[in-house]
Amino acid sequence: MFSFGKDDQEKAEQDFERAEELFDALQYKKAGKYFTKAAERFIEMKDHKFATESYLQAANSYIHDDRHEDVIESLKNAANTSLEQTKFSEAQNYYSKALEYNENIQNSADRSRNFVHFSVMNFICHFIKGNKEEGLKVIKKIQKKVDTEYFKEHLLVHLVTNLTLAVREKKKAYLERIKKDLSKYTTTSNEKILILHAIMLADLQASLTPELKFDQEQYTTKELIALYIKLSGEQLQNISDKDLYPYQIEKLIIEDIKISLSDNFAVQTKPTYPLDLRPDDGLDVEFVFKPHFQKEESYIGPLKMICKIDDTFTLYIEERNENKIDLVAPPTHLDVSIKNLKTPLVGQTFPLEILIKNNSDGEASQVKVEATFPENLRVMRGTTEKQIYSIRKNEEVRWEINVKPMEAGEYEVKVDLTFKDPDQNEIKEENSFPVSIKL
Question: Coil, strand or helix: which one is 290?
Answer without folding.
Answer: strand
